[in-house]
Amino acid sequence: MGNRLSHETSPYLLQHQDNPVDWFPWGDEAFRKARDQDLPILLSIGYSSCHWCHVMERESFQDPNVARIMNEGFVNVKVDREERPDVDSVYMRAVQAMTGQGGWPLTAFLTPDGVPFYGGTYFPPEPLHGLPSFPQVLEAASRAYRNRRGEVEKAGEEMVELLERASRSGRARRTVEGGEEPREADGPDALDLDAAASGVLSHLDPVNGGFGSAPKFPQPVTLTFLLRRFRATGRREILDAVLLTLRKMAGGGIRDHLGGGFHRYSVDAGWRVPHFEKMLYDNALLAQCYLDGYRASGAEDLRAVAEETLDYLLTDLRSPEGGFYSARDADSEGEEGTFYVWAADEVDEVLGDEDGPLFRRVYDVSPGGNWEGKNILHLPHDPAALARQEGMEEAHLQEKLETLRRRLRELRSRREPPFRDEKILASWNGLAIRVLAEAGAALQRDDYLEAAERAARLLLDRLKDGARLHRVLKGDIVRVDGFLEDYAALGNALVSLHETTLAGEWLQEALSLAEAIVDRFLDPEEGLLFDAPMDREALIVRPRDPTDTATPSGNSLATELLLRLGRTLDREDFSQLARTLLATEGEGVRRAPHGFGWLLSAGELEAAPPLEVAVVGPRDGPGTELTEAFLHEIHRRFLPTKVVAGKAPGEDPPVPTPLLEGRDGVDGGAAAAYLCRGYTCQAPTTSPAELGKELDGGSTEAV
Q1: Domain limit, last residue, from 414, 434, 467
Q2: Distance between CA atoms of 559 and 44, rounded to whole angstroms?
Q3: Least trusted range by pLDDT, from 175-184, 186-195, 322-331, 477-486
Q4: Helices within 364-483 (DSSP H only)
């Protein structure tokens, strides 16, 4: 018989339904029991594809003796961080403040009022490498709560005060004699974009690309900012840093060379040994980086990786209804990476005596293995040099390798696959929809555009109820009121869908989400956007974290959305709020620019002079080809600060759009494009090639 988690829909919670631990889901029932019985709460936070979460479950939560200690001394609460990022944010900050580090599984001990007094991450079943055992931690936390209640409560009060200050630390204020007064928001002037880029580049690994040392994360949010800074300045060293990183990752084991897509991160500095889980958000954001890198440089190898990554989303992470699942686990058959690694004799058996050794030379497959006796496929050598070594053209080698990869991929498909987390999250789907829409227009991939539109309709139909957006769709069940990141990520995706299809419905829905952000997430007294809506259940503090993690923060996504709609719809209220939000985080950006990549990208948009394109043309039937040609000319170029609006000839847009006023098709309804740069509009053109020349007139020369 399962515990209380057996009634949940979260795949992560369901993974713990058969534990002997008396788990509660987050909610009133758990806190009521804690108050009634005067017991501390043990809060455990993780997610379904978290490797060390699985390890701690096997070692501790499945152990009847450990479960007994937990059940007798605590009210035990399990939280899926992907469903409840608000809970995770509050208690992750608390644990980081207590211990100086954080991560998952997150383990926090709380009073019955939810105030944290002790915590950590993974704890082993026995003392190990200076870490106390989990039973020792349980006993220490229980003893502190029973015997030193005054100290626990005082420490808790201080922690809440610290968290409150942290959540409001970005207010745009300056100290004056006698107190504080509001500082006038100066928008992008609060962000020194060049200094931020230089600060980020100071952490570049000049050999392997990426930033910092092992373990190494891809940091697509940071790469996106650098690409936009290159576009604004033409500084070649910025582009070189991004291209180095993108190519080193593409050649490393962090990339799945058979099935497409990227693993979560690399445990080494050279991208060779990955942590094997695959996340939707990583792959959506990295596909965006490779697409933008291709558009900025014209490098076809980057285009190939972008398409391969998006194809992976469509083949492995897409639901039958068109939404995108959250993740693939790192483990299968009880071990990490089993699905992805190879033995040399397996390769030779499948590919034969001639092709097997060739494949092994290319992908560093040896009898002794390159990781724990097995082989992770990666590309340690330049493909052009290998082709010369093999006495063949590079194109011929690549064609041959694709055939060999297909054969190994077919064999791999018979293995037990890693668990797939099949919940659909609004924010992560928003990231995927956006890049699919932009790639569809840029690369002339109608299947990408169709996939983006289908996913967007699913989210709007199933997760949006009037002005309210929910976060989670699992099967037929809708759960969890949406957070700022959900509204903002989906809103940006819908703006991109309008810019790539000209359908007014997408712009209308994006406006609805932006207005809901202002109504539900903005504290008018503080002038800040918070991560959770004002009418949501109260936590010990209202969560607000403007810094980016593996994904853009809700604050930075919302700032970008407000800027895009401010320009497209001439909504000065949106633009002014966005400028205030940019100024609010100026000091944080100066201290740690690597933590604000997406906000810096929004700063690039605000700092750039207007570049607006109106396209009026048929969206179906005769004349569609010309409309699509215009859109391809616009989106195949890397113009990240552009604004695009459009409609069909004679159509009244559902949202008043000043850029479209007085503009229509020409010559009886033929498609036409109108380019406005720096508040000056040019005459309409009916030639996509001419529009391309006009767009190039103010762009950085391709390199």
Answers
A1: 414
A2: 32
A3: 175-184
A4: 383-390, 394-412, 426-443, 446-462
Q: How far apart are CA 192 and CA 600, in angstroms?
A: 9
CA-to-CA distance for 497 and 452, rounded, in angstroms? 8
Q: Are residues 603 and 620 in the same domain?
A: no
- Distance, in Å, from the CA atom of 148 to the CA atom of 151, rounded to the nearest integer, reads 5
451 and 565 both lie in a single domain: yes
- Asked whether 657 and 507 are in contact (CB, 8 A), the reply is yes
Rounded CA separation 210/648 (Å): 44
Going by C-alpha positions, the residue among 554, 457, 557, 566 that lies closest to residue 501 is 457
Tell me the per-residue pLDDT of 531-553, one tens digit each, with 9 for 90 and over. 999 988 889 999 999 999 999 99
How far apart are alpha carbons 607 and 500 in whole angstroms?
24
Q: 75 and 34, same structural domain?
A: yes
How far is the C-alpha of 383 from the C-alpha of 398, rounded, in Å?
8
Helix (H) or strand (E) holding 613: strand 611-616
Q: What is the DSSP string of 217-250?
A: ---HHHHHHHHHHHHHH--HHHHHHHHHHHHHHH
- Residue 421, pLDDT > 70, answer yes
With the CA atoms of 101, 107, 111 and 115 taken in that order, what torsion angle do they form, in degrees rounded to the nearest 10?
A: 40
d(CA 124, CA 288): 38
| 396 domain residue, yes or no | yes
- Predicted model pTM: 0.94
Query: Considering only CA atoms, which of 301, 197, 314 is closest in space to residue 249?
Result: 301
> What angle separates helix 300-316 from helix 236-251, to the nearest 10 degrees?
50
Residue 633 CB neighbour total at 10 angstroms: 23
Could you tell me which of 580, 474, 456 has the C-alpha nearest to residue 513?
Answer: 456
CA distance 504 to 651: 10
What's the mean pLDDT in 472-496?
Answer: 97
Residues 4-21 pLDDT 10s:
999 999 999 999 999 999
**CA distances, 333 to each of 41, 337, 338, 523, 632 (Å):** 33, 9, 7, 49, 45
